[in-house]
């Protein structure tokens, strides 16, 4: 289990990340959210759904603390998780997030149906 200091550091980092990632003028059309529980953080993209005030959530990446390393998983179109072999497991969460942000293969930031 992650210690409280690490959890607070990650929450602070993620709050800044999701705020800066989507420009203010686009936030009515897309937003990033995250869910953190125990040793796991899931990064989501949300877009307006058919009904007013409803948002459709699409998982982007799953960060999982295991064996003193952050391992990253990618979501497929059926919302199943597969290991993201292009992301090197690392001790620092920020390093794992940076690899997802760069996404040189298009595994995370792609057009979705």
Automatic annotation (TrEMBL):
Pfam families: DUF3024
Tree of life domain: Bacteria
Name the UniProt record assigns to this protein: DUF3024 domain-containing protein
Provenance organism: Paenibacillus cucumis
């Amino acid at each position: 289990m992650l210690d409280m200091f690490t959890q607070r550091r990650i929450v602070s980092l993620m709050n800044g990340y999701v705020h800066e990632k989507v420009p203010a003028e686009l936030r009515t059309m897309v937003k990033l959210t995250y869910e953190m529980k125990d040793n796991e953080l899931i990064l989501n993209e949300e877009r307006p759904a058919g009904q007013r005030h409803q948002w459709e959530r699409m998982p982007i990446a799953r960060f999982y603390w295991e064996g003193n390393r952050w391992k990253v998983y990618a979501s497929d179109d059926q919302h199943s998780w597969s290991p993201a072999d292009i992301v090197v497991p690392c001790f620092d969460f920020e390093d794992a997030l940076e690899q997802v942000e760069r996404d040189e293969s298009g595994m995370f930031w792609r057009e979705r149906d």
